[in-house]
Structure prediction request, 268 residues.
Amino acid sequence: MELTILEGIAIDPNYALAGAVTGFVVGLTGVGGGALMTPLLLLIFGIAPHVAIATDLWFAAITKLIGAAVHNRRGHIDWGIVTRLWAGSLPAAGLVVAIVALSDPVGRTHWLTKTIGVVVILAALGIVFAPRLIAALNPATPDAEQPSRNRTSLTILAGAVLGALVALTSIGAGALGTVLLLYLYPRRLLPHQLVATDLAHAIPLAMVAGAGYLVAGMVDWHILASLLVGSIPAVIAGGLSAGKLSGRKLQIALAAVLFAAGLKSLLF
Prediction:
């Protein structure tokens, strides 16, 4: 059953529920925007890959804008790290968007599905093993001071990788971004600061990545409206809960869902 709230716009409760679940997870952990929503649209709702990616990019941008505003009011965002990520991610996303705009989206369906599966599985494994990788690869030295030139370069490079992945699949800004930030700044960012910083970085990135799809008319506005009806109040609730609740168990549960979704997209 659909609920019509504006002329020509009907809200589907199934999409609204999916938006609410994803929004809360995004607000609480910074993970789940593209990594959870794109597989849901693609594998559960049967949406065409290019439409799922286009719609999810704008869903993520709007949802994360609300979530980041909640965190910013509490001073949780590290804007120095955000600007370095943007220096790499925005140009890379713009380049991929230009390539996508010149290609045939229908012909990309098969390999996009497989690409999404691989990225989702990598994100799931990254979330699970991030703490061990960080402990093994990072020496026990403080990093609260201004980052070294090498770390700045690595942050820009990480941004470029995220920008390309987000523009191509709509996945990566939260799931893979969290893992990369954990590695690069394991002692500079507290958990709630990590969530907030990752959210702030993702907003313009999703908009830049989604611009080409928007111009090409691939965004499904009916689905987007239904998703946002659920996600906006949920992301506020998740953002207010961050710092009060431990997000680790939720991240592990999310990783299990992501792994199953990614495996399904590779096998079917």
User: Anything to note?
Assistant: Strands lie at 3-6, 9-11.
